[in-house]
Amino acid sequence: MEFLRSNLSRVQIPEPTHRIYKHECCLSFDTPRSEGGLFVDMNSFLAFGKDYVAWNHEKTGNPVYLHIKDTPKSVPEDRPLKKPTLLAIGVDGGFDNNETEYEESYSIVILPDFVSLPFPSVELPEKVRIAVDTVLSAVGAERREQVAAWAAEEKKASEHALTLQQLKSGIVIPPSGWKCAKCDKKENLWLNLTDGMILCGRKNWDGTGGNNHAVEHYKETSYPLAVKLGTITADLEAADVYSYPEDDSVLDPLLAQHLAHFGIDFSSMQKTEMTTAERELDQNTNFDWNRIQESGKELVPVFGPGYTGLVNLGNSCYLAATMQILFSTHSFISRYFSHQSLKLAFEMAPADPTLDLNMQLTKLGHGLLSGKYSIPVTEKDAATAEARQEGIPPRMFKSVVATGHGEFSSMRQQDALDFFLHLLDKVERGNNTRPDLDPSRSFKFGVEEKILCSSGKVSYNKRDDCILSLNIPLQEATNKDELEAFNNQKAGKGLEENNMSTDDIVRPRVPLEACLATFASPEQIHDYYSTALKGKTTAIKTTGLTSFPDYLVLHMRKFVMDAGWVPKKLDVYIDVPDVIDISHMRSKGLQPGEELLPDAVPEEVMETAQPVANEEIVAQLVSMGFNQLHCQKAAINTSNVGVEEATNWLFSHMDDPDIDAPISHQASDVDQSSVDTLISFGFAEEVARKALKASGGDIEKATDWIFNNPNASVSDMDVSSSSSAQTPAQTGLPDGGGRYKLFGIVSHMGTSTHCGHYVAHILKEGRWVIFNDSKVGISTDPPKDMGYLYFFQRLEN
User: Fold this and answer.
1) Is the four-CA dihedral 736, 737, 741, 746 of positive or negative sign?
2) 208, 213, 214, 215: CA torsion to nearest 10
3) What average pLDDT does the chain have?
4) Can you tell me the distance from the alpha carbon of 395 to that of 384, in angstroms, rounded to the nearest whole number?
5) Three-state secondary structure along 296-311?
6) Which Gene3D superfamilies match (predicted)?
7) What is residue 122's three-state secondary structure?
8) Rounded to an integer, what distance in angstroms lies between the CA atom of residue 225 and that of residue 213?
9) In Å, what is the CA distance from 577 to each residue of 57, 251, 469, 743?
């Protein structure tokens, strides 16, 4: 006690601005439920497990700690389950998941001798008592981001319902036997509540659904509300009412009155159709979902080093799937596990290790690879319970890696590809003083684009990349006869795929080799400005790789536009072999006899860098129902390449906080630090500024803009020749042979990369293992033909 009194200056009373950690160790995944409990530094309010608290004492000299220990409560086996009042988990009124309840105990511990003083106790100094009470009553920093509550989004009453004018047409709607007034559709029918017209709904992404007659009727008449026939029952709030002006499902408080106008007695009607929300939910239980998760199969759980699951923090499966694969690579294992101890990372970390990416990557690496947390959970009834592990929650890692990124710091689902690229960028920046230790370089390779002008002269543009993004050439499907027979059968019977058994549906099978060949095949560039001809012409672009990375990542582009400009996700299989050879994709550089295009670029070409959207692309997007401003932004941010690219951009950025902000043309909007970053990439300042203006200040988009607009930057690109080209060794990129072995797959289920679920399959110790958040088991049927991202490791010799 005297020692405690003599160190009261080391005890702080927390202020509201302090970040207080009391649920998880900053260096490990130890919690108050761990064997040694958790120790909270009463000066910094950082928490440490028993094996690590002495390191903090050595580093800071802080001797006073609050020890928190949770012990399980004894619960009667016949405890009744609470009835949920909210569609949520882990919140008051939510589902009771029957988890073990714990009782917390506290004490004051003095280091270095771990002398323990009881708490609460009147004998403790008042400052200590106040400080501890404040810590215990505060919300822990680990839980501030958001509780993972899966609360259903409530529909709002439509602003058009109370003022709806209904025409006195004398139409009486029968209780069944409906059909679209403009086609033969008998399902997905909507009753317009103004004039009583029955019309079919929108065409879905996959071509199923209706023929858009209901929405076209709204555009002709501006009659705002429609109700989906087959969803009307005595529970009127469950009926699917859609407001076209509000572009959302809504509530109609006067629905009973509006239905009675057409002679509909809602109390006697039966539910025969899914609501819009139910159909969206049903899409998450389709064939892809079951196949990729290997649902219904007896998965044997696996435990030990390298087999640790990751707890889903709420739509964080994109992070879990990506990190499981990254920590299966030698580069990440070496950098953050085998060659870096937790103590070393802590000693190098700043005062708050929770904010240090190197520390949190090391913590995550040791958590996943040590095996410490990959142990079976002790069940009450071991004879019947399924063996499982709790997994580790990557909260601190997610927080630090998402800093400054509006989407990744949210609880919304994200694109695993976007996260992979974001993480590699963060890792590269974090290792900029020691590039030899940078694990992200094992994914990097050089790309060389050769542009052959009609004058016969050429230019070579080089860049670095971390992924090969591949289009899927459906015309190269190997089962064309089966597809044709299936489509004829489907058309003959008038069937829709969403009403067919998944086992009966025939999907195209495209070889991966065909996707790689498409990437490397010549591509025409129209309206290319030739500095040799001093005018626009058609050029031929071919793409190759200047180096082959240690790990090759292939991204399958499954979102496309069909012939009717309807966006859809390709329902396709990709036949991926276990071993591929891309040796033929190596670029050859400037060849004897080739002459480089002149460097001069006229000022009028440079001026085309202003962010102006292609009117034709915008018009086509607007005709599909998208907002005019959003369409302009999509065209600009995809460099006016085409409707498909713009549509993909729209689907990926619909939830951006600045999506409705006006398009800025001001030069002052260009951030100097962004300009400096592009200059460090080798681009001239003038081109960097124009690219940033055209890309809204986004560095990644600006880089893409430069490479997609060679006319505006020919003089500033890396124009190579046989004498000046750098070798991969000179640029620091890894290189080797072109043979690769498949070792990891990230699969996606859902209609968009921003919804649904991600799962990883990884080849470990000669067997495929599924990592589905916290579930880890031996895979019996890895979905090699259904991947979104494929990870390959280069084979030596």
Assistant:
1) positive
2) 90
3) 82
4) 32
5) CCCCCECCCCCCCCEC
6) Cysteine proteinases (3.90.70.10), DNA helicase RuvA subunit, C-terminal domain (1.10.8.10), Zinc/RING finger domain, C3HC4 (zinc finger) (3.30.40.10)
7) coil
8) 14
9) 53, 51, 18, 11
Q: Is the pLDDT of residue 334 over 70?
A: yes
The lowest-confidence range among 86-95, 567-576, 686-695 is 86-95
What CA–CA distance (Å, rounded) separates 538 from 527?
A: 6
Output the DSSP codes for 321-367: HHHHHHTTSHHHHIIIIIT--HHHHHHHS-S-GGG-HHHHHHHHHHH
- Sorting pLDDT into bands at 50, 70 and 90, what band is 797? low
The separation between the first and the last C-alpha atoms of the chain, rounded to the nearest angstrom, is 67
Residue 629 to residue 699: CA distance in whole angstroms:
22
Half-sphere exposure of 598 (CA within 13 A, CB side): 11
SS3 label, residue 174: coil
Residue 700: partners with Cβ closer than 8 Å, 6 or more residues away: 421
The Cα 666–Cα 693 span in angstroms is 8
Higher pLDDT, 728 or 330: 330
DSSP secondary structure code for residue 32 in this structure: T
Element at 250 (helix H, strand E) = strand 248-250
Does residue 317 carry a catalytic annotation?
yes
Q: Is pLDDT larger for residue 758 or for residue 496?
A: 758
Instruction: Count CB-CB contacts under 10 A for residue 184.
Output: 9
Strand (E) or helix (H) holding 319: helix 317-326
Q: Which residues pair with 529 in a beta bridge?
A: 536
Q: Which residues contact 137 (CB under 8 A, 6 or more apart)?
A: none
How many Å apart are CA 79 and CA 220, to the nearest integer?
Answer: 60
Q: Are 263 and 230 in contact (CB under 8 A)?
A: no
- CA 268/CA 265 separation, integer angstroms: 6
Convert the pLDDT of each residue in 686-704 to its tens digit: 777 777 776 667 776 677 6
Q: What is the DSSP letter of 536?
A: E
Give the Cα separation of 597 and 710 in Å (integer). 12
Residues 6+ apart with CB under 8 A from 414: 315, 318, 319, 407, 408, 753, 754
E strands within 393-519?
A: 445-452, 458-465, 468-470, 509-511
What six digits make up the tokens of 692? Answer: 């940033």
Question: Which token pair is 674?
Answer: 């962004």
Catalytic residue among 180, 317, 466, 515: 317
pLDDT of residue 352 exceeding 80: yes
- The answer, yes or no, to whether residue 737 has pLDDT greater than 90, is yes
Q: Look at residue 764 and tell me whether its pLDDT is greater than 90.
A: yes
> Phi first, then psi: what are they for 81, rounded to 5°?
-80, 140
Phi, psi of 704 (to 5 degrees): -60, -40
Q: 736 and 550 in contact (C-beta within 8 Å)?
A: yes
